[in-house]
Amino acid sequence: MVNTIIIEVPPVLLIALPLLFAFLAPLIYMVSKKVIKYYTFSVLILNAVLSYLLFFRVMNEGVVYEQLSGFYPPVGILLAVGYLGVILAMLINTLSTINYVSFFDDDTNPLRFSMLYLLVTASSTGIVITGDLFNMFVFFEITAVGSYGLLASRDTKRSYEGAIKYIVLGSIGSSFLLLGIATIYGYLKTLNFYDIAARITDMPPTARLMSFLFLIIGIGVEAEIFPLNGWVPDAYQGTSSGVASFMVLGPSKAGIYAIARLIFTLIPIMSGYELALILGALTLLIGELAALNQEDVKRMLAYSSIGQMGLILIAFSMHSQMAFVAAIFLMINHALAKALLFLSSRSYSEGILKNPIIGASVFIGALAVIGMPPFPGFWGKWYLVVNMAHEGLWFMIIVILFAAIVEAVYYARFLWRGTGEKAMKLKKGETIAIVSFAIILVILAIFPGWLYSPAMNAASSLLGGGP
Amino acid sequence: MLMEMIALMFISALVVAAVNRYPKVAGIIALIVSFIPFFMMLSWSTYIGLDFVPDFLRLLHVEQSVNCNIGAATLSLAITPLGWFFLLLLTSLFPMVILFSISFIKKNAGGFYASMIFTMMGSIGILLSQDILSFYLFWEIMSWSILALVLRSHDKRAIMSYLAFGVMSAMLILLGIMLLYSETGTFSFSGMGVMANNKTLIAISLLVAGFAVKGALIPMHVWAPYVYSKGEEPFVAFLSGGLSKLGYFAMILFMYGVVSIPVINSWGTFRNVPVFGYILAVIGSLTVFIGTILAIMQDDLRKLLAYSSIGQLGYIAIGIGIGTPLAMTGALFQAFNHTFFKSVLFLAAGAVYYRTGKWKISELGGLGYKMPFTFLAALFAIFALAGIPITSGFAAKWLLYEAAIEKKFLFITPIMLISGVGAFLYSYKLLYGVFLGEPRYDVKEAPKSQLVAMWILVLPLVIFLIYPGWFVDLTAPVLRWYGLIPIAHTPYVIATSLASYNTLAVIFALLGGLILAFALYMSKPQKVVPHTDNYLAGEPPELYEHISMHAASRYFQPFDDVFYPIVKRGAEKCWLAILKGVKILGEGARAVYTGIVNDYSMYIAVLFLLLVGWWLLW
Description:
The complex is a heterodimer of chains A (467) and B (618).
Chain A: H1 12-31, H2 36-61, E1 64-67, E2 78-81, H3 83-100, H4 110-129, H5 133-151, H6 157-188, H7 193-199, H8 205-222, H9 231-238, H10 241-249, H11 251-266, H12 270-292, H13 297-317, H14 321-344, H15 356-370, H16 376-391, H17 394-418, H18 428-446, H19 449-463
Antiparallel strand pairs in A: 1-2
Helix pairs in contact in A: 1-2, 1-4, 2-3, 2-4, 3-4, 3-10, 3-14, 3-18, 3-19, 4-5, 4-11, 5-6, 6-8, 6-9, 8-11, 9-13, 10-14, 11-13, 12-13, 12-17, 13-14, 13-17, 14-15, 14-16, 14-18, 14-19, 15-17, 15-18
Chain B: H1 2-18, H2 23-44, E1 65-69, E2 74-78, H3 81-104, H4 109-128, H5 132-151, H6 156-184, H7 198-214, H8 223-230, H9 233-258, H10 261-265, E3 269-270, E4 273-274, H11 275-297, H12 301-322, H13 325-356, H14 367-370, H15 372-386, H16 393-406, H17 412-435, H18 448-466, H19 468-481, E5 493-495, E6 500-502, H20 503-523, H21 533-536, H22 557-567, H23 570-592, H24 597-617
Antiparallel strand pairs in B: 1-2, 3-4, 5-6
C-alpha cells in the first residue's frame, strides 16, 4: 500500500465521461457506422480503469469527497465515494465492460443501444458514489429511463411488454421516491446525506417514518424487492440475454446499495431493520419458490435473481459487521454468476455442458449462485449464517437453508437440461464474456482475501454511518 | 509441504483438463498425480505411531498440522489417527481407479480426471480438517466435484436426486454445526467441549442425518441407486468404495470426537450402549436388510451392485452405533473391506461392460471362461462381500456379529444374519449369471491396466485374512484417540469376551474342506452342458427367446413376489410427496406474478397501506 502510486482521480469523471461520450455517440455514428461499438467499448474500458484508480485512492485515503459546481455543501451537490460505493462502482464498470463484449455480434440499433448502455452505466455508478439525495433521485431516473429503452431494444412483442410493465411500476416507484425526498426537504431544508443523517432526529417521528416508507418503496422497485418487483420476470424474459445480465449486474445492485444507505445512514430506525428483514425473507422465499416450477430458463433465472436480492437485503438488515461483509460477498457473487447464467441463456439448450469451456463456465456459475465453496457466494452465506447463529435467529437460518435446497433442485434441473448430445451454439462475444466472468469467479474463489479486506472496511464505514 | 502438494494437485488438475484432446496423456498425468496423496498418507503415518514411511520419502517433510490463512478465514488442518485411517482407504483406492480409467474413459477424459483430482483434494481436506469451517468447506468442494462427475451420466434422476440430496445434506450439516457453534462459541473441534443439552442433541442428530446422505443410510439413500447405476464405473467404484466412507468418518468424528462418549451416554443408555447409537444401529440394520432384499431383485448388474453397496454400508453404521471397541473395530474393518471389494466389483462390472457392452445379467453368462482373471478378482471380491472365510470379509462380519451378540441385541443380530444369507443369494446370482454357465460371447480378457488395478485391490483382502491382527494394529490408534481400549490380539488371533477368532484354524478348516470338495469333484467325469439343458433336458424349443432360458432371469421369482410389495420405492415415495408439497407452494408463489401490470401496481399500494397500518398500530 505504501509504495502504490495514487492518482488523484476526481470521482465526477466516472459519471461525466460516459455521459459526455454517450451524447457524442451520434456524431461518431454519422462519421462511421462500424466504429460505434469499438467507441463505446473503449469508453467503458476507460471508465473501468478510472474506477480502479478511484478504488485504490479510496482504499488509501478513506472516503473521497468532491463538491460540484462551486457551492459548498449542504447547498452544493456533493459526491461522497465510500468503500462500498467504490467497490460497487468498480464492479459495475468492470462487469458492464465485459458484458458489452457480448453485443459485438448483435446488430440491432447499435447507436441507440450504445448510448443507452453508456447512460445506464454512468447513472448506476452515479447512484453508488453520490452524497446527495436529490442527485441520487436524478440518477435513479436516468437509470430507469435508460433501462426502459434497453429492455425494449429487442423489438419483439415480449420485449415491449416487459418494458411497459417496468415503465408503469418504475414511474410509481419514482413518485414515491420523490414524495419521500420532498418530505425530508420540507422538514430539514437539505438534501445532503450527511446533513440529513445529522439532523434526522429533528424531524417528527411521523414524518420520519413516512419518508422512510416512501423511500424504501421507491427504491424497492429498482432493487427487486417483493412485492414491488412484478416487472422483473416479464422484463428479463422478454429482453435479450445481454440486457438481462446487464440489468442484474448494474441497476439492481445500485438499487440495493441505495436501500443499504437509506436504512443505515439516512434514516436509521429500529423498525426499519425489522421491515427490511421481513421484506427480504419474503422476497427470498417467493423468488426461490416461484423459480422451482419454472420451465423457461430466463424466467427461472429472473425469479432466482429476485430470491438472491432478498438474501442480500436480509444480510443488510442484520446490522452487524459480519453480515455486511456477507452482503458484499453476496452482491458480487450474484452480479458475476447471474450475469454469466443470463448470458448463457440466449439459446440455452441441451448440450451446453458438452462444450468443455462454456460447460465448465456455466457449471461454475451455477455452483456460485447456489453458494457452493469456494466461490464468493459461499463466504457470503457462511458469514450470514454464522452471524445469525450468533444472534440466535434460528428461524431465519431455516428459511435461508430451505431456500437453498429449493434453489439446488431447480439448478439441478437447469444443469440436467444442459447435458445432452446436441451441439451448443453461442456467439463469440458471448463466449468471451461468459468465460471472463467465470475466470473472475475462480480468481475470487482462490483469493477471497482480496474481497475480504475492502469489504471489512466498507462494513465498518457503513456501520459508523458513513457512505 | 502439504500446501505445495495440494497446489501441485490443483495445477495438475488444470493441466489434465487442458490436454482433454489426448485422453491417454491426460490419464498418465492423472495417474502420476494420483500417487501424491498415497505418498502423503505414508509420510503422515509417523505422526500416529505407525511408521510406514519409505526411505525415499523421508527427505520430504510433511507437516503434522498446518494453519492456512486464505484471506477470508483461517483453516486449520492436522492429521489425526481417525483421519489417517480413512486417508489410507481413499488414497490406496484412488490410483487404482485412475489406472483403470486410462483404458475405460474415452469421452472428455480430461474433465473426468480433473474432477476426480478435485474430489480427492476435497476428501483430503475433510479428513484433515480441525475446525467446522474447513470441514464444511471441503465437504462442499467434494460434493460438487462429485456432481461434475454425475453430470456426465446425462441421467435426469441421477443428477436431480444427487444435487437435491447433496444440498439437503449440506444444509443439515450447516444447521448442525451452527448449533454447535452457537452453543460453544468456537469453530475448532478440539476446543468445543460440547455439553449435554437439548441443543447439542438436536445438533448431533442433524449432523448424523446429513452424513447419512453420503453414507446412503435409509431413508437418505434414494440418490444412491440412481447415481451408482448411471455413473461411469471407475467413478462409481471410487464413490461407493471410497467417498461414501466419508459420511461414516464424519459420524465417528462428530459422535465420538466432538461430542464425546460420556455426553452421548448422558442422553440415555440401553444395555450400556447409548440410545442415540442404538437408534443409529437399528437404522443401519434396516439399511442392511432393505439394501440386500433390493439387490436380490435386480437384473441390472449396476443396480445390483448399487443396492448391495447400500446394504454393506449399513454394517458400518451398526458398528458405529454400538460403539464398543469390538464394534468399532468391526465397523472400521468392514469399511476397509468394503472399500476394496466393492471397488473391485464395480471395476469388474466395468470390465465386463467394456468387452461385451451389456449391463443386464440375463444377457451375460459364461464370461469366466473368456475373462478368467477378471472372474477370479470378482470371485475374491464376492467372497469378501458374502463374508466367506477365504478373504478378510469374514473377519469383519464376525467382529460385528460378536459385538451385537455381546450386547444381546435381539433385533439387530438376527437381521444381520438374515442379510448375510441374502448377500449369498445376490452374490450367487452375480457370479453365476455373469461368469459361469454357457459362454455366450466370444470376447477377449480385459485390458492389462484394468486387470492390474483390480488385482492390486484384491491383495489387501487376502493379506488381512491371514493377519487380521495387523488390521487391529492399524485401528488401535483410532480407538485410543477416542478413549476406547483396542481389543487384544496377536497377528493370527483376535481375542474377545465371547471367544477368540483364530485365522489359522479357520484357514486350515477351509483348506481341508476345499481339498475334500475338489476330490469329490474330480472323482466323477464332468461335462459342460448348455444353459438351456437345466430347464428343458437339452431340447430348447426354437420359438422361445434365448434370454428367457437364462438361469439368472427370474432367478428368485418367488422371493421377489413376497418382498416386492414391502420394499417398493417406499422412501422414494415419501420424498417425492414432500417435493410435490413444495412444488404446490411454488405454484402459489408463481401465482403472485400474474403478468398483469394492474396487479403489480396494486401490490405496491397494498404494501404501502399495510406498512402505514402497521406503523399506526405499532
